[in-house]
């Protein structure tokens, strides 16, 4: 049998190297771009994009939104990551950014009534 139909092994895989640019490793980040979107019947923030310290926790973000929107102290505020789940209040933003951040930002949705999960 001849080897004429065998694939040409002289074509090396070296020529197929992928060159991708890594923007910035999440572990090198000290500030995080936070995108805050309203959900349900929540008031809309005039400024949606914020740059915050990566060591802040979800509770801090909740208090910040509460204060920014001038909500009553007894009004509840729900936060969701990428419209899927509600993170715990003691969760650090850096961890959420490393796991769920996309396009160099972390997207959080806020609502004054329970919306998802």
From TrEMBL:
Keyword Flavoprotein listed: no
UniProt feature coiled coil, ranges: none
Gene3D superfamilies listed in its UniProt record: Phosphatidylinositol 3-kinase Catalytic Subunit, Chain A, domain 1 (3.10.20.90)
Cited InterPro entries: Atg12, Ubiquitin-like_domsf
GO molecular-function terms, A-Z: Atg8-family ligase activity
GO biological process, one term: autophagosome maturation
Renumbered residue ranges of the record's region Disordered: 1-26
A Pfam family hit: APG12
Entry superkingdom: Eukaryota
Subunit structure: Forms a conjugate with ATG5.
Family: Belongs to the ATG12 family.
Role noted for this protein: Ubiquitin-like protein involved in autophagic vesicle formation.
UniProt protein name: Ubiquitin-like protein ATG12
